[in-house]
């Protein structure tokens, strides 16, 4: 579910910071591209940037990819490979590894081993 929502969350986050200067001679001519009636860094825009934009940036833009990388690193031993070759694992351990592989599938299925 997060992989479907992630692109639109990122776009929405960066739209809060996307300002454009209409007239170089005036500081007040900087407007928000998503809503040209809003002046950038004014009262409503500044509150949105601080209360919505920064937490979204930390959680979605930085936090979600880092948590995926951490999860992959933590379970790097559970990546694809043949479990039939391993004789030191019990049936329950093999089941747990297969279950973890299924949860990791969306994170690693696009990458090919060297």
Which structural traits does this protein have?
mainly alpha; two-stranded antiparallel ribbon; 2 strands; 56% helix
Cα radius of gyration in angstroms: 22 Å
**Major sheet: size, sense and barrel closure?**
2 strands, antiparallel
Broad shape: rod-shaped
Q: What is the average per-residue confidence, as pLDDT, rounded to a whole number?
A: 83
- Percent helix, as a range, is 55-70%
Structure in a nutshell:
This protein has 114 residues and is mainly α. It contains 3 helices and 2 strands; from the N terminus they run αββαα. A two-stranded antiparallel sheet has the order 1-2.
Describe this structure in words.
The protein has 114 residues and is mainly alpha-helical. It is built from three helices and two strands; from the N terminus they run αββαα. The chain has helices at 2-15, 43-74, 91-108; strands at residues 19-21, 30-32. A two-stranded antiparallel sheet has the order 1-2. Helix 1 (2-15) runs antiparallel to helix 2. The two termini are 29 Å apart.
What's the structural blueprint in terms of helices and strands?
Elements: H1 2-15, E1 19-21, E2 30-32, H2 43-74, H3 91-108
Antiparallel strand pairs: 1-2
